[in-house]
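Good morning,

Both structures are done.
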Amino acid sequence: MNKPTKVVSLSQISYRWANDISPTLKFDQLDINRSEHLFIKGPSGSGKSTLLGLLTGIITPQNGKVQILDTDISTLKQNQRDKFRADHIGYIFQQFNLLPYLSMIDNVILPCHFSSIRKKNVGGELRKTATQLLKRLHLDEKLLNKPIVELSIGQQQRVAAARALIGRPELLIADEPTSSLDFDNRTAFIELLMEEAELAKSTLIFVSHDPTLESMFDRSIQLNDLNEQAITLAMGAK
């Protein structure tokens, strides 16, 4: 049988913030396969945000290789990494990062204005596709032209998911997107997110400190275990 295709491969990674004595992240290897749903857990301060920064090219490691979709993004210039992220990565931010002066539907189609690849994947029916996506995420069509500030937190969350999903990016990253929801709404949101990721054949990386969500995913990683060497170094420095 053929081995699963890797979408993400991080090797010999070391990243240290300027004022830190020891690395925030230091590990040998992390591979993530195509269409995999991966849960990454860890307490505050374990390096989750740093890992997401590396995966999206917002930051680059001092040592090591960050390969996304067969591209070593750590070797790209900042503007090239920005373009790569816009074309291939859908990101659901913890605080959603929606534009308050735009309507719900205009927030969703925004990535397609920055990426010709994602716009092409939609196939010319941009607003229609966005509307269908929002409806599948249980958002009423009557809300399409409502400003973001008039929506509830739960509605904003689903708009953020639709924005990340539009144009079928190969990699979907969710950073603590359910932290403000109760258990029932949290579970329903993740199920919807997974359904949409499967339809788009996207790889889903979901980062959270909540271990109760872990069983919903194909695989889970404890960041402290992955980052054991860095933790050992930090303890030795005390």
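Second structure follows.
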Amino acid sequence: MKDSQNHSEGKKFVAVAAARLIQDGMVVGMGTGSTIAFVIEELARRMREEGIKVVAVPTSFQSRILCLDLGIPVRDMQDTASLDLAIDGADEVDPDLNLVKGGGASHTREKIVASMAKEFVVAVDESKLVGRLGSTFAIPIEVLSSARSYVEHAIRDLGGAPALRLALRKDGPVVTDNGQLIFDVRFAPTADLRAVDDTLHTVPGIIETGLFFDMTSKVLVASGSPGNMSLKTLTRTP
């Protein structure tokens, strides 16, 4: 219970710090997940109380609905070519600020939005910092449903162990906002994930991986205990 409370407080703390980076007049990419829900709530508060005007470009149905419910104007990704800022969470962050994302099955859209942004900021608590990507979290890979068997064999040929992500409250697999499937893939600790990622992008039927290399501008990290939180900012070295 205490660890769960710490994580929740850490997410709220870092979310408020991330929301402070949003300036009046910005068009902002909004990621997906529990930390970003707190960012959206804090942004809505600032818009009400400070009068700033912001347009959000959400990466998922979940984030879009929350923005609309809280009065934040939204713009569709398909109508957007560039963003002032994108804010998202991560499942893992390595020492070079590379990421694993996709726990919410939205990493394809999240990667597009991150690529659109002049600055891509990630907000996490310290539990997400790892020495090596894939050490605590499997690598999500979005796959065309019609290519499921072919892609599964291709991943195994690369040394990966794919598991089709199954839904919790329905029979069958998780279906992404793009209408496709997710494999969660474990690779050996010795695997060169950057090389693996390059190869995966050549496999027909793979839409996108949850590996984010060389995309992050900075990472905001919350640490500490409830009532005694601190913030650290990590900046990627070009």
